[in-house]
Structures are given as C-alpha cells and as structure tokens.
Design brief:
By secondary structure, the protein is an alpha+beta fold. The chain has two domains: 123 residues, no CATH class; 33 residues, no CATH class. The protein is built from six helices and seven strands. Strand 3 and strand 4 form a beta hairpin. It is elongated, with a radius of gyration of 27 Å. About 7% of the residues have low confidence. The chain binds zinc ion. The site of zinc ion has 8 residues, from loops.
C-alpha cells in the first residue's frame, strides 16, 4: 500500500478512497492474510480513516504459556488532523482527555498518509491486553493439584428429596 498524497484525496469523488486489504504485513505476524478495507475520507481540516479487517494471530496464553490462535477483528475509526506543527499546542488542550482511548495523530495538509503504518498501529492496539487460550484456563500449576470432582449424592435427588435431606442434616446436627 503506497502512501497517499493527501491533497489528491480532496480531488476524488466524495473525497473518499477505499482501499481493499488482502495481504500480510511483514512487521505484524499473522497466520492468515489481513483481509478487509480501509476507508480514507478527506474532511477539509482532517482525515477520517476507518478500517474493518480480520485476520488470525497466534498468541501465547498468559496463564499456561501455550500458543493459541485468536481471530483478530479490527473495526475502528480515527480522525487525523491536517495541520502544521505550530497549531499543535492549542489542540492539545482540547484533546487531552481523549488521549488514552484515542491516539490522535496529525499530518501536514500537503503530506502523505501511510495506510500500512496506520494499519499496523491499529492492529497492534487491538491485540487483547489479557491473552488467555480459554476463559477457564487454569494455568500450569493448579492442573496438577486440581482434585477430581467428588460425586455428590444430593445432586442426583430431585428438589423434594433435597429439602428432606437438608432437614435430616439439620436434625442430625442438633
Ligand atoms: Zn492457557
């Protein structure tokens, strides 16, 4: 994906370019090609970039250290301001509260937008913080000491018998 010359985007129909993605990114290891699309729209003072892509990555479980495959779905949108460096501090004051959830970037209005780099960043950000092969993964150590579940007789009785059983236990305890 070649970097896009930003002024050219403004001359396109609807000021929009749709890029079909079906490729591997060398810096971002995936099991299958990254498939989907990136839409770049020139909004005058900003670019509105959105992406929907899908791929499969191999991750290492935080608990048991086994590798597992994870379907990585990306569905994101970002505003990239088109401005010269000098206006940056003014904007910072307004944007600072969004900083964590939205890594706002800016580009010069006559610069280039690199879809590859942007997609790489978005994919990296979308990796799960907590990587688990399975929500119930118990990890390495507990597996060895996990006791076999004991058969519970009461569970096999129906609820009426359960009530009797409780009563009986209460009487016995008294
Ligand atoms: Zn695991």
């Amino acid at each position: 994906m070649e970097p896009l010359y930003i002024p050219q985007l403004a001359n396109r129909p609807d000021r929009t370019l749709e890029i079909v993605v079906d490729r591997l990114i060398p810096e971002f290891a995936t099991l299958t090609p990254i498939r989907g699309k990136i839409i770049v729209k020139h909004g005058g003072t900003f670019l509105e970039v959105s992406a929907q892509t899908e791929t499969i990555v191999t991750l290492t479980c935080d608990r048991c250290l086994q590798q597992y495959n994870h379907r990585l779905m990306l569905d994101t949108q970002e505003i990239i301001w088109l401005e010269a460096e000098s206006t940056e501090p003014e904007r910072r004051g307004v944007e600072v509260k969004n900083e964590l959830e939205d890594l706002v970037d800016s580009l010069p209005p006559d610069g280039h937008f690199p879809p590859d780099v942007w997609l790489y960043e978005q994919l990296s950000l979308s990796l799960p913080l907590r990587q688990l092969c399975n929500l119930d993964c118990v990890g390495i150590e507990p597996l060895e000491i996990a006791p076999a579940p004991e058969p519970v007789e009461v569970a096999q009785l129906d609820s009426r018998w359960g009530i009797l059983e409780n009563l009986k236990q209460k009487l016995e305890n008294n």
